[in-house]
Design a protein that fits this description.
This protein has 526 residues and is α/β, with parallel strands linked by helices. The protein folds into 4 domains: 116 residues, NAD(P)-binding Rossmann-like Domain (Rossmann fold), CATH 3.40.50.720; 178 residues, NAD(P)-binding Rossmann-like Domain (Rossmann fold, 3-Layer(aba) Sandwich), CATH 3.40.50; 135 residues, D-3-phosphoglycerate dehydrogenase, domain 3 (60s Ribosomal Protein L30, Chain: A); 75 residues, 2-Layer Sandwich (Alpha-Beta Plaits). It is built from 17 helices and 22 strands. The strands form 4 sheets. It has a 7-stranded parallel beta sheet, sandwiched between helices. The chain has a 6-stranded mixed beta sheet with strand order 14-13-15-16-17-18, with helices on one face. Helix 5 packs across helix 7 and helix 13 runs parallel beside helix 14. It is elongated, with a radius of gyration of 30 Å. It starts with a strand and ends with a strand.
């Protein structure tokens, strides 16, 4: 039974979902901030469910010897070392939709609060001052809202702003013109947004590219009297520069739910009369907390029990319905990749993966990830299907994928081609009777089951070779388990795939290579 640790406050409903799915749960909601204790016990668990208090850094991941999945109940995962998790094959999931409406509503609420100075007016009024003339606000009606980020939450904010009769301009490099038209927003570049917006709201994750996206220079380009709202991530705005512009009146008001340093017990923005702050409440509604807790429990349970992957940040998604169908093809892809990786002798220059027949109509992204894991494993022992695509990209080896609905011989074929030393090496396989099989090597047809130890020989098809090969193996005490042959034609290029029960020593491989008919010899392990 898989075992999951919940180290942050999470709805009790999540515990019940885990249990109902056959997952053992250790509920320790106060553990999160205790990194030393977490490091000490994390090796016991298959899954870790967290919110924002738990910091899953590289040392925690290194100690997580059995961990398979980290589930973040919420959107932001800046408290998880995703590269370290990826390198170790740990799937990192979040729940991007469970608190979207809540966060969008909070951004709108902060816009109203800043526009009408509600927080300051409340303090003044409850102090008995009745400073009606002091708190002159501005309307949202007919104003231009500039969205920085128009993904899930940004689009919900846009929808609500349009309902308030605002004009919406959005800067998002990933926003297509078609999607912008569908939302009713104008897609613009950042410079134009800064120049035109009466209100600016941020809805983007914190990355190296978005850090201080509203820098001192960017803030200086905004329209005088602009109002700025950040309910996304701390660090997107240069807080010191913003304070200076709030004090000068260039920025009329700002409202933040997030800060560069949290918990924000003190901050340079605090104390400005035209600044409103909330303590990271974007997702803090009972509905949102229930939603993300249920979502993360369902996602993690599905992965641990069925292999289904949902909302992962470092692995392709696989539905629960797809998982049983994909699993045999994923194993075939991995074995073909492992075969190809063992016959790369002069560096990996390029990779091509072809899907033919029925397999071309399934979700092939996890199949490609499996193939790349096998391919890179002989060179990088710690690689896995989570880390492999990123590693291949880092190495600069181009990957090409193609799909064809028809296969001339089989219902489904996966073919892997690798370029090494200026030439291409090609392998193909099928799933037959639920088992992976090799059906093509170097374009030559044959049918061979994968054996734990195999000898791959490329030779010229001449009389006596097979007998000599069998004699040499027999003299070395190596038993032949399976023997499969392929060839172009008599006297031409041929291959032998020999399953053996013992390792083939290097000295014997050298003797085989010295035979006049032999072009290539490789001992393989699967």
């Amino acid at each position: 039974m898989p075992k999951v640790l919940i180290s942050d406050e999470l709805s009790p409903a999540a515990v019940e979902i885990f249990k109902s799915r056959g997952v053992e749960v250790d509920f320790q909601p106060k553990l999160g901030p205790d990194a030393a204790k977490l490091k000490e016990i994390i090796g016991q668990y298959d899954g870790l469910a967290i919110r924002s208090a738990t910091k899953v850094k590289a040392d925690i991941i290194a100690a997580a010897t059995n961990l398979k999945v980290i589930g973040r109940a919420g959107i932001g995962v800046d408290n998880v070392d995703i590269p370290a998790a990826t390198a170790k094959g740990i799937v990192v999931m979040n729940t991007p939709f469970g608190n979207s409406i809540t966060t969008a509503e909070h951004a709108i609420a902060l816009m109203f609060a800043a526009a009408r100075q509600i927080a300051a007016a409340d303090v003044s009024t409850q102090a008995g001052k009745w400073e009606k003339n002091r708190f002159m606000g501005v309307e949202l009606y007919a104003k231009t809202l500039g969205l920085i980020g128009c993904g899930n939450i940004g689009s919900l904010v846009a929808e609500r702003a349009i309902g308030l009769k605002m004009r919406v301009a959005a800067y998002d490099p990933f926003l297509s013109p078609e999607r912008a038209m569908e939302l009713g927003v104008e897609k613009v570049e950042l410079e134009e947004l800064l120049r035109r917006a009466d209100f600016i709201t941020l809805h983007t994750p914190l990355t190296e590219k978005t850090k201080n996206i509203l820098s001192a220079d960017a803030l200086a380009k905004t329209k005088r009297g602009v109002i700025i709202v950040n309910a996304a991530r701390g660090g997107l705005v240069d807080e010191a520069a913003l304070r200076a512009l709030l004090d000068s009146g260039h920025v009329a008001a700002a409202a933040f739910d997030v800060f560069a340093e949290e918990p924000a017990k003190e901050n340079g923005l605090f104390g400005a009369p035209n600044f409103t702050a909330t303590p990271h409440l974007g997702a803090s509604t009972s509905e949102a907390q229930e939603n993300v807790a249920l979502q993360v429990a369902e996602q993690m349970s599905d992965y641990l029990m069925t292999g289904a992957v949902t909302n992962a940040l470092n692995m392709p998604s696989i539905t629960a319905e797809e998982a049983p169908r994909i699993r045999p093809y994923a194993r075939l892809a991995e074995l073909l990749g492992l075969f190809a990786g063992q016959i790369i002798d002069e560096g990996l220059d390029a990779v091509q993966i072809e899907y033919e027949g029925d397999v071309a109509r399934v979700n092939t992204r996890p199949l490609t990830a499996s193939a790349l894991a096998g391919l890179l494993r002989p060179m990088l022992a710690e690689v896995n299907m989570v880390s492999a695509p990123a590693i291949l990209k880092e190495r600069g080896s181009p990957l090409t994928e193609s799909k064809s609905d028809a296969s001339p011989t089989y219902d489904s074929v996966i073919r892997i081609k690798v370029q090494t030393g200026g030439g291409w090496r090609t392998l193909a396989g099928v799933v037959a009777g639920g088992q992976p099989k090799i059906v093509e090597v170097k374009g030559m047809p044959l049918e061979a089951a994968f054996h734990p130890r195999m000898l791959y020989i490329n030779n010229t098809d001449t009389p006596g070779f097979i007998g000599a090969l069998g004699t040499m193996l027999g003299e070395a005490g190596i038993n032949i388990a399976t023997f499969h042959l392929g060839r172009v034609d008599e006297g031409q290029d041929a291959i032998a795939m020999v399953g053996v029960d013992q390792d083939v020593p290097d000295a014997l491989q050298a003797r085989l290579r010295a035979m006049p008919q032999v072009r290539y010899v490789k001992a393989l392990r699967f």
